[in-house]
């Protein structure tokens, strides 16, 4: 029944209908507004998640040197030092089965590359006295009081325990910070740029008391991730310890630290996953022990998207226990990639040119890899290795040797 008809039939009914219809209209508008607000809120959340993903992606792809400079810039700020040293809001939390590389403590110029490493060489030369003091401390005291020291231990306490001047303690801390930034030039990669990819050697796989561990070349990575006490921060903000400006800046710093944590955590989980999966290879050094391993498989295990694995490993390398540098991506051999590695290995040590059939036979006999002659030829061409008759021209003539 329409409003006009209700007025004709019953004025009393009309008086009841008007507020009722008004209420219904008001409820409808409120529900529409609520749905609009929910839609806007959902869009805002999606936008925030997208921005967060973009920030994570950018940080995962950031060059090692730039990444460590970002960390150094944050940790040198007075507000970070207050959050870390004075208020104990920020602490370091080491990753399992990780440590500083055994090579780091040597602090020798001979480990430094010839190119692009003048900053490191001059750093060592200008700090000869401090380097001697570090070596005099011993590895365990160096780790305890400088690398992994807790904020509860003051500079004065460290100086007393280590028989150093306070100024020397401060100089050692500064030296460690400098090496964190320049870690890509100390124990640098020996790989040349490959199609625009520049490698940074970030860690070595080393034997520990209970199996293999990761020895990081950068002190900031060895220290682990940042553990943040947000409840204490809010408590200090409420009681006025931080001004409004400092509170905003503190939250901005903590947001950056959380993003840094994501990169550190992702890289560490990837490397530890590789060490666990390829343990037999690291034990023997035998390529036959290198297992097929996909980035998708590891991504599922550590609960990240496969693209994060790809971004995190790009341009990064590690040292094996026997001192050979290898790109991190090489520890994810696909079946075809695995076969290419074996073919290259066979041909690098051949004493006479092997035909494709000869390669196929050796792959089957020595590695237990079944493959057709045609597939051997295809993989050999992908490796840009010429056929046996062409390679034979590079071998010495037997008659001439006699």
Keywords:
single chain, disordered C terminus, elongated, 20 helices, two-stranded antiparallel sheet, 3 domains, 402 residues, disordered N terminus, alpha/beta, 5-stranded mixed β-sheet
Layout of strands and helices, then pairs:
Layout (H helix, E strand, L loop, with lengths): L2 H7 L1 H51 L2 H12 L2 H9 L3 E4 L4 E3 L17 H9 L1 H10 L1 H9 L7 H8 L3 H16 L18 E9 L2 E6 L2 H4 L2 E4 L1 H9 L5 H34 L1 H6 L10 H8 L3 H8 L2 E4 L5 E3 L7 H14 L7 H12 L5 H10 L5 H4 L6 H4 L1
Parallel strand pairs: 2-4, 3-6
Antiparallel strand pairs: 1-5, 3-4, 6-7
How would you describe what is shown here?
The protein is an alpha/beta fold and 402 residues long. The chain contains 20 helices and seven strands. Helix 2 packs across helix 12, helix 12 crosses helix 15 (306-313) and helix 16 packs across helix 18. The longest helix has 51 residues, at 11-61.
Oligomeric state of this protein: single chain
Relative strand content: 5-15%
User: Number of folding domains?
Assistant: 3
Sheet/helix structural class:
alpha/beta
For the sheet with most strands, the description reads: 5 strands, mixed
The count of DSSP E runs of length 2 or more, i.e. the number of strands, is 7
Order of helices and strands: HHHHEEHHHHHEEHEHHHHHEEHHHHH
Average pLDDT across residues?
Answer: 80
Poorly predicted ranges (pLDDT <50, ≥5 residues)? Answer: 1-16, 109-116, 397-402
The whole-angstrom Rg is 31 Å
Strand order of the largest sheet: 2-4-3-6-7
Number of helices, counting only DSSP H or I runs of 4 residues or more:
20
Q: Which outline best applies?
A: elongated
Q: What is the terminal separation in angstroms?
A: 117 Å
Helix content: 55-70%
